[in-house]
Amino acid sequence: MFRKIPKQTVYFILIIAPFWLLFFNSPFWHGLKLKAMGAAASVISIANFPLDEMRILLSYRRTYAEFLRLQHGQQALKEKARDVDDALGENERLKDLLGFKGREDLSTTAARVIARDPANWNSSLIIDKGRRDGVRAGMPVLNALGVAGKVAEVAERSAKVILVNDPGFSVAVVNRRTREAGLLSGSLSGACRLSYLPVAADVKAGDEIVTARLSGVFPEGLLVGQVVEVYPAGGISDARAEVTPAVEVSRIEEVLVVR
Q1: Residue 173: how many CB atoms within 10 A of its CB?
Q2: SS3 of residue 234 by DSSP
Q3: How far is CA 173 from CA 179, 193, 206, 213, in A?
Q4: pLDDT tens-digit series, residues 199-253
Q5: How far is the C-alpha of 72 from the C-alpha of 57, rounded, in Å?
């Protein structure tokens, strides 16, 4: 039978043997150590694989959360930039209106466009000033570019404005170059029609058309538009012309109501 090995000897072997195998430089043991270390590395790599994948997943989640945070911040900055651009644009338009008001020395009320008529989007609009602000039907409506239209209907806090290209709009005008008078009115085409011109009227494309003293309500000399095409008199018809409004009616946001 085998003799019983003392515990001290077993402990000594278990403690000393690994160190001896690890640091003993015999070629045999060196090769054995390398094989043992390679096997251990493979085991450790397999054991660490789930941990590595978990670390990658957690890192991805953190990175994606940071991406969403930055994306949200970028969107907020874009919205602030748009607000700043809108404010700058409004300030420029209001400055132009104030400059126009000072240049023309008119008694006016500034108003903002708050709605448009869906049935006549580019022919009429609603402003935020009304009867309590001294606005009355028939009052001229301008912006920094010239004549925009006139007040058609008035409520207590708002008013409807028909624009210069509306068929219901008309005003007495003159050709700034020749001083020949005529009547300008809106049309269904969106342009304006200049009619009741003299048979031999001297009207050319590019001529500026301004309000006449005969208009009564409109101050004299306000720009209404520019001639783009002339139709000479023929038979019983008078000479007439097509006029492009000076005001871009689709872009009106603020106006001045002349009182």
Answers
A1: 28
A2: strand
A3: 9, 11, 15, 8
A4: 788 999 999 999 998 877 898 899 999 999 998 876 656 788 999 999 998 888 8
A5: 22
